[in-house]
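Today's session is about reading a structure prediction critically. Students often jump straight to the picture, but the first step is always the sequence itself: look for stretches that repeat, for charged clusters, for runs of hydrophobic residues. Only then move on to the predicted structure, which in these notes is written as discrete structure tokens rather than atom positions. Here is the chain we will use throughout the hour.
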Amino acid sequence: MITSQSVIILVSILAALLGSLISLYLTKRLFTKKRFTPENAIELLKAGRPEEWNEVRILNPGWSPDLHSEDFRNLVLPSANFQNANLDKALFNQALLDGCDFYGASLKFTNFENASLVGARFDMAILEHTNLKGALLDRASVEEAKFVETQIPEGTHLAQPGLFHPKILHKVQKDLSSLDWMNPWEFEEFVSYVFDSMGYKVIQSSKVLDSGFDLKIMRSDPIRGQETYIVECKKYKPGHLVGVSPLRVLYAKSIENDADHALLVTSSGFTREAVEFAKQIPGLELIDREALTRLVANLSMGIN
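Below is the predicted structure for this chain, in token form.
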């Protein structure tokens, strides 16, 4: 005869056993999760995970990836960091590479045929016999790039250095889609001006190497005294959401730089995982497209 007490004991045993199995499963997942280093990080690119690739790059600042002859055709890799990489003879045909950073990269005989490179940066890069046939290069930056036997497609509207003006704030106020016409570096300048207009002292980090954050801003509070923020700017298309990886890096950099707050500003939005991650980290703040629009709308600019 089974008594109620026997049932309770049996249920307790089963619950304990189930808890142990779940704990064992989670522990196994935690300790068997693959770690990515410069030696195997290319797997992240091949899997279409540019944010995690960028994380490895930031955590290994002296690393110049050798991606000679690699095949990235048809991959979606927006905003990937290819700074100072050897991409000679690499294949990027029909890849989506909007906002990618090729600063100082070697692009000899690299194939970008029919690739989307809107807002990409080629400053100081070497483009020798580089195939740009059919590539979309609008708003791309090519300051001090070296072109040898390489032709930019006719009708391309490249970014014009030094043309940022505060009146762009008015333009964004009137038409939010103006954000989408900026390349990542124009967006950084825009965010910098927004904080400057709000009374912050703004210091821009190095444009040469990705340090994990773009701006350091400071402002004195009458109660808390001077507070320091580090700010990372992510110029993404609407619908392309910022994930957890940039937040992990930004938080680590805030500790490294003894900042009071870490702030990630995007022209898009954040994944659910990113939002939940930020809620668990004191001082980590998120500004999405909607919040940035409110900041701009509330500015008292006084610009004619």
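Discussion point for the tutorial: Residues 25-32 have pLDDT under 50 and may be disordered.
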